[in-house]
Write a structure and sequence with these properties.
350 residues; alpha/beta; 12 strands; binds pyridoxal-5'-phosphate; globular; 13 helices
Length: 350
């Protein structure tokens, strides 16, 4: 994402809109390029960036937006591309969770100007480390290839080195050839795995939709193929009978890997100017006044609602899903006892 921003000529003092509910890399990439991340809230129905909030945050300094296709959902790419066209913005899709997902039949990462994919060890397509950057034009691809390769000039489309062109300032963002070879093998296995996950997610949703206090995130009908990294659903704590951290802890105890998800971006201490001493927060502290930021949907998801299930639940056939659903029901049936035990523990630790 840093390479994409730099290839698009985005840098010092430019504003880049990012969602409040994502891994910190989505916001640290603009900072690494010298740009300012402007944090906006996500949509309550799918926890992806809310196009209405993007529109409100656009200023004459806005140059780009980085929608994240979070967990098992995709951001509303139609609305985002319409805003980008109107305001002349670059769109970088953060597809770290969305390898192979499709929007209206188009692959995630091919709709914006750039698509950024993580191949890091936790991802569904992995080479242990590294990533893939898709670029909309041969010119952008040549620039990106050069920045990735210590500034060596590359041919249009990002092909071989081209000595007739000038060097630019770059870094070493190269994927090793061994890692690329692993990706070529992994990508052959990937479609079958993605299909299995998609079928099992449909199966799980039938069961989850019958459990009181569980809210499925809305799958947009334009999100034509689902391919996800983690599956996210929401709970209504009062109706379900407990808070999401207690449910996730109990699921872990039942052998089902579960997580409450990321913190809201405005709770990240690492970006705060005094702590980070990074150039961008230090130079533009007014953008990092986190205490005064209102991001109610992201905060509700992070603090009370979201439950993230690992993709392995969806790769063990119907039995994997049945086990997870049975565990959720068992935990809900024992909500009273679990809440009491959690309260005891809390009292002891204070
Ligand atoms: C949403 C999101 N964006 C970006 C990244 C960064 O990817 P990488 O670790 O490959 O740099 C991750 C996870 O690692 C992520 O979850």
């Amino acid at each position: 994402m840093e390479v994409a921003l730099r290839a698009a000529g985005i840098g010092w003092g430019d504003e880049v809109i990012v969602p409040a509910y994502t891994f910190q890399a989505t916001a640290s990439a603009p900072m690494a390029a010298g740009a300012i991340p402007v944090i906006v809230d996500v949509h309550p129905e799918n926890y992806c960036i809310d196009p209405g909030e993007i529109e409100k945050a656009i200023t004459p300094k806005t140059r780009a937006v980085i929608p994240v296709h979070l967990g098992s959902n995709m951001a509303d790419m139609d609305a985002i591309m319409a805003l980008a066209e109107k305001h002349n913005l670059i769109v970088i899709e953060d597809c770290a969770h969305a390898h192979g997902a499709k929007w209206n039949g188009r692959g995630a990462g091919t709709i914006g100007h750039f698509g950024s994919f993580s191949l890091q060890s936790s991802k569904t397509l992995t080479t242990g480390e590294g990533g893939i950057l898709l670029c909309r034009t041969p010119e952008l691809a040549a620039k990106a290839a050069s920045i990735i390769d210590c500034g060596r000039p590359h041919a249009l489309g990002g092909g071989p080195e081209d000595d007739s062109q000038e060097y630019q300032v770059g870094g070493n963002f190269r994927l090793s050839e061994i890692a690329a070879a692993l990706a070529l093998v992994g990508i052959e296995r990937f479609p079958a795995q993605a299909k299995e996950r998609e079928a099992m997610a449909d199966y799980m949703e039938e069961a989850l939709s019958e459990i009181p206090g569980i809210r499925l995130l809305r799958r947009d009908p334009r999100h034509t193929t689902r391919s996800f990294y983690r599956y996210i659903f929401a709970i209504h704590p009062e109706e379900f009978g407990m808070e999401h951290d207690l449910l996730c802890g109990a699921l872990e105890a039942e052998g089902i890997e579960a997580w409450t998800g990321y913190e809201a971006m405005n709770h990240y201490t690492l970006f705060q100017p005094q702590k980070s001493k990074l150039a961008v927060p230090s130079a533009f502290p007014e953008y990092f006044d986190f205490k005064n930021m209102e991001l109610p949907t992201a905060q509700r998801a992070c603090e009370h609602e979201a439950v993230w299930l690992e993709e392995n639940v969806f790769r063990a056939g119907p039995k994997g899903v049945d086990d997870a659903v049975a565990a959720i029901k068992k935990i809900q049936a024992n909500a009273g006892k679990l809440n009491e035990a959690a309260e005891e523990l809390r009292k002891k630790s204070t």
